[in-house]
Amino acid sequence: MTPAVRCTGLRHAFGATVAVDGLDLLIEPGEVFGLLGPNGAGKTTTIRMITTLLPAPPDTIEVLGRDVARDRTAVRRLIGYVPQQLSADGTLTGRENVALFARLYDLPRRARAEQVAAALDAVSLADVADRQAKTYSGGMLRRLELAQALVSAPRLLILDEPTVGLDPVAREGVWDRIEAVRAETGMTVLVTTHAMQEADEHCERVALMHRGRVRAVGSPAALKGALGPGATLDDVFRHHTGDALAPETENGGIRDVRAARRTARRVG
Amino acid sequence: MSAPPVAPPAVSAEAGSPGLVRTALSRTGTMCLVELQKLRHDRTELVTRAIQPALWLLVFGQVFTRIRAIPTGSTPYLDFLAPGILAQSALFIAIFYGIQIIWERDAGVLAKLLVTPTPRVALVGAKAFAAGVRALAQAVVVLLLALVLGVHITANPLKLLGVALALVLGSVFFCCLSITIAGLVLSRDRLMGIGQAITMPLFFASNALYPVQLMPGWLQVVNHVNPLSYEVEALRGLLAGTDARLALDFGVLLVTAAAMIAIASALLPRLARG
């Protein structure tokens, strides 16, 4: 079966700083895969290369059998992307926010309204779809972004820190929607997170990144089991990253922190 | 739990892959629609942005009409000035689109747009035409004010269509200039400084306030390479019936707008990475 994502010897440097250093990764179709690691581990750079935001050399990344370097537009049609920041437009209504992405993905006019309504319904925002997004709570905004990413029926959903700044109830709400849609459509979900408990509960497999490389990969249960009885995913994380605060090696490290803070402020 | 959006193949994004021209037209329509939706939800910007052009017409225009300091032949000075203020109003809207795109980068919006199957050139073109739509909405307010002040404005629908086209092309150029600078400096603060540094010189080095013949020689040279002057000349010719080289004016606006879209598109990935 064609993997959802295959990275082979992936490398990216910002000047003299190597952010991703010979990364090998295989994500099976239909699984919820977590990319974990401390700040500066290379997660965001990897995601940005998979989503075509950063250039990747040919034959280093395949998304559902398509080479990212050679077939960018086709890859973009397969992807739904939710960035870390809350990027929905507060001036527009929920429906207008989702309809914008339905148009950007060239959904036919006759199916568009129905597909937009279905995406909003899937994230339980149908009742408030005609309210301006600036009146939404943080959890609702995140679900709105999920609807924006889902409206094109992507085969690979990529979420960058989807629950940052959300309260526990809103977090569960977001994960409930992700899992329900995944179960219904069979799409692959690739998620980055710092929240080990979330990764443990919701990801079928995780990869632990440190200094641009994958240090461990497997199911949370297998990784914990390999460390010994009673081990948590936090222990696995510390074991592989050396419990050290990594330097901000990724380009935009400060911006990542600012973005996280801005997102946290917006969700209140 | 409600039903998730299971897409039949016909409506999956994988199915459609229109050509570049169709994509560009579709994205332009989409971005223009979004601008109109934003304006519909928040009309305060139309009013606040109208204050400055209103002051130019009310204060500068009326005072200079009274003192007859600027010779404009048989054309009343307010009639001469109104197209210049119209162009200035559009310039001020478009030149700060670079700041908006940097905000969109910081807010994750740009990344989301770049991950859609949209060629960079179509995305930049769409944004630039959306700036034109916003400038047009503003132009309606300025023109209404000009009518109240007694400015003679053509009622010929074809000429008014030409006015709209000149305003949109001018906005496209200055919006893309702004995105280009954003792609070079990458920071909102720097762009604000540069934006403020170039807008007034562009305005004063054009024929917006005074006829070219009154300018010193060196300023006339600058005026000839300033796209704003061609925009003003076209607007003035169409609105007030003054002498204009419309073919040249629209030719310059079209070529410079297309060139600027190409340059801004080339710098967009740098902006996304920066």
From TrEMBL, chain A:
Domain of life assignment: Bacteria
One MF annotation (Gene Ontology) recorded for this entry: ATP binding
Alphabetized InterPro entries for the sequence: AAA+_ATPase, ABC_transporter-like_ATP-bd, ABC_transporter-like_CS, P-loop_NTPase
SMART domains, alphabetized: AAA
Alphabetized Gene3D superfamilies for the sequence: P-loop containing nucleotide triphosphate hydrolases
Listed PANTHER family: LINEARMYCIN RESISTANCE ATP-BINDING PROTEIN LNRL (PTHR43582)
Protein name from the UniProt record: ABC transporter ATP-binding protein
Organism the protein comes from: Microbispora corallina
Automatic annotation (TrEMBL), chain B:
Membrane protein topology class: Multi-pass membrane protein
Pfam hit, one: ABC2_membrane
Record-linked PROSITE patterns: ABC_TM2
Subcellular location: Cell membrane; Membrane
Organism: Microbispora corallina
Transmembrane segments: 85-103, 135-155, 161-186, 198-219, 246-268
Alphabetically ordered keywords of this record: Antibiotic resistance, Cell membrane, Membrane, Transmembrane, Transmembrane helix, Transport
Listed name of the protein: Transport permease protein
Keyword Cell membrane attached: yes
Family, as annotated: Belongs to the ABC-2 integral membrane protein family.
Domain ABC transmembrane type-2: 44-271
